[in-house]
Amino acid sequence: MSDEEKTFKVSMKREKDFVFKVDFGLPDVEPFTMDEPSPLGGDTGPNASKVLAAAMGNCLTASLMFCLQKARAEIGEIETKVEGKMRRNDKGRWRIAEIDVEISPEINLDDFQSQYDRCFGLFEDFCIVSKSIEEGIPINVHVEPR
């Protein structure tokens, strides 16, 4: 594999009903539980929409932090809130129509206003997850009955 392509894998296995254990393939990380909200599932874990929102929020926050750290800004607490809006499409199917991300870093803007402005203009472009979604990720689905 070249420097131009990297791969990652995640696997999941159904436990019962709509409860899945997701394995990230990391040695010291326990499997992650996902479930659908009621009435379909039992709300025993986040569903895919919430995990996607968390991935976007995490990626954007990490990108901003990386930029601020490179600018030698001291970052205190940082909190990110993500709100997704779902709407029905023309076929009546639910789709994630919009995601709002609010990142609140604790930072002294008096000392770092110019770096903050620069990072604010750059960081989104370095978030792999949100930019990949915006640009449209080709998805190849294969179903293999056992």
Account of the protein in words:
- This protein is an alpha+beta fold.
- 31% of the residues lie in helices and 29% in strands.
- The chain has three helices and five strands.
- It has helices at residues 48-70, 109-122, 128-135; strands spanning 11-16, 19-23, 32-34, 75-88, 94-107.
- It has a three-stranded antiparallel beta sheet, with no helix packed on it. Strands 4-5 form a two-stranded antiparallel sheet.
- It starts with 10 loop residues before the first strand and ends in an 11-residue tail after the last helix.
Brief summary:
By secondary structure, the protein is an alpha+beta fold.
The biggest sheet amounts to:
3 strands, antiparallel
CATH H-level superfamily of the largest domain: K homology (KH) domain
Alpha-beta classification: alpha+beta
The name of the CATH topology of the largest domain is GMP Synthetase, Chain A, domain 3
Order of helices and strands: EEEHEEHH
Strand order in space, largest sheet: 1-2-3
* Mean pLDDT over all positions: 93
Q: Regarding CATH, which class of the largest domain? A: Alpha Beta
Strand content: 25-35%
- The outline comes out as globular
Percent helix among the residues?
Answer: 25-40%
Per CATH, the architecture of the largest domain is 2-Layer Sandwich
Count every helix, treating DSSP H or I runs of 4 or more residues as helices: 3
Integer count of domains: 2
Contiguous low-pLDDT stretches (5 residues minimum) are none
| Straight-line distance between termini | 30 Å
Total number of strands: 5
Nearest-angstrom radius of gyration? 19 Å
